[in-house]
């Protein structure tokens, strides 16, 4: 086996994708063990305290994942041993509802801006970062990422509750290549932060923006975001009563938007639906869950839309079967609708038959 050079072993191992087979090969001899480590492109870690035992083998890693408790020391080890990482997924997940107290104790020692600084300085090739639900992540950590990761294209800060408008100011002025930004549950974000995003270079690069549950924002902040000319996916779910039809009608002017989530915006009504039907020509997915002022009259306006494929109307109680029938028969591109199960009992069978004959699936939930 020693007569085979490393180059040949690399060619062999790169053709094997099954993790179990790769593990078996690594146990053949020391050469296979070493080469298998050098060709490993991704790992998912369940025991971070053992990083030093195996991470030096994987110097060519491109993707690192762990949903476990991670400290600054762990990230320092990662940065020193795996400088070629491109995807860093540290989204935190609780084990069960019985582990809440233990999780809270671990969070106290979770990584913060110091750990992120190690990563940002040591792994400059990173283009995708997921820090979802990491409570130690704040503005200083975001500054490190933006300052030292010029190739960053996707950043998930969902439920990082220390992230504020200062982070958005830095992101807006420094992330020229960012295409996806998730700020779900970042409750400190306000209209000022959104204005910072819209006035920087992101206005011509950002394609996906998630602001769900950012309940300090209002129509003013949403209007400032309409400067973004490349935005394709926009999520404003549960952003509170200060996002109204004023924002909805402004969003309708977007020519690039393809997916829009306005669920549980209690002050969004038919006026927004009509505006979107007339203005958002490229829209293919729309969610109005819980928008109680959206009625059958507004939904019928979508019959003239020529690109809509998916429509969610759960908890929209002012609809009838005839509204759905007119929508499905009129909007020829529509493929999928979600509505409340309780509505079905009030829809005449002949109407259901007419709907089912079309190429549109209705999900009654």
TrEMBL record:
<dbReference type="GO" id="GO:0031146">
    <property type="term" value="P:SCF-dependent proteasomal ubiquitin-dependent protein catabolic process"/>
</dbReference>
<dbReference type="InterPro" id="IPR041567">
    <property type="entry name" value="COI1_F-box"/>
</dbReference>
<dbReference type="InterPro" id="IPR057207">
    <property type="entry name" value="FBXL15_LRR"/>
</dbReference>
<dbReference type="InterPro" id="IPR001611">
    <property type="entry name" value="Leu-rich_rpt"/>
</dbReference>
<protein>
    <submittedName>
        <fullName>F-box/LRR-repeat protein 4-like</fullName>
    </submittedName>
</protein>
<dbReference type="InterPro" id="IPR006553">
    <property type="entry name" value="Leu-rich_rpt_Cys-con_subtyp"/>
</dbReference>
<dbReference type="InterPro" id="IPR032675">
    <property type="entry name" value="LRR_dom_sf"/>
</dbReference>
<dbReference type="Pfam" id="PF25372">
    <property type="entry name" value="DUF7885"/>
</dbReference>
<dbReference type="Pfam" id="PF13516">
    <property type="entry name" value="LRR_6"/>
</dbReference>
<feature type="domain" description="F-box/LRR-repeat protein 15-like leucin rich repeat">
    <location>
        <begin position="123"/>
        <end position="230"/>
    </location>
</feature>
<dbReference type="Pfam" id="PF18511">
    <property type="entry name" value="F-box_5"/>
</dbReference>
<dbReference type="GO" id="GO:0019005">
    <property type="term" value="C:SCF ubiquitin ligase complex"/>
</dbReference>
<feature type="domain" description="COI1 F-box">
    <location>
        <begin position="3"/>
        <end position="41"/>
    </location>
</feature>
